[in-house]
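Lab meeting, item 3. Inverse folding demo.
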């Protein structure tokens, strides 16, 4: 009986892992579609930057950069869902922290914590993250 239950469990585990993989792929495709659809907003923001006088264009440029970095975070998140590599998680965190630091008006303490967080991510990527299994 024990061997038969193990085979059933292995089959169930295989089915569940495949369902999860397909759901992740579907979510990644939804994110990709949202990024592609959202690209039209970038064109209108570029036009607004050129059409607005210098003092007003700063806020529009900040919104443009925020929008682009958000799209990059979305693309990296979609890659993370598809690849399943620890490096993908590091890249998503790197872009998310960078976006937060560049866009929001942070206090000095928040900026310092962001720089420390980026340094930790670079340290992990350089010294703790194994890029190839042969290394």
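The presenter then showed the designed sequence:
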């Amino acid at each position: 009986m024990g061997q038969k239950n193990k085979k059933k469990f292995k089959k169930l585990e295989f089915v569940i892992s495949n369902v999860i993989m397909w759901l992740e792929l579907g979510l990644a495709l939804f994110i990709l579609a949202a990024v592609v659809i959202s690209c039209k907003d970038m064109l209108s923001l570029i036009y607004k930057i050129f059409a607005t006088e210098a003092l007003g264009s700063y806020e529009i440029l900040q919104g443009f950069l925020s929008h682009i970095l958000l799209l990059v975070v979305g693309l990296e998140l979609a890659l993370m869902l598809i690849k399943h590599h620890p490096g993908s998680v590091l890249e998503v965190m790197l872009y998310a922290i960078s976006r937060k630091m560049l866009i929001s008006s942070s206090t000095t303490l928040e900026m310092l914590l962001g720089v420390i967080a980026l340094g930790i991510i670079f340290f992990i990527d350089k010294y703790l993250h194994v890029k190839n299994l042969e290394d």
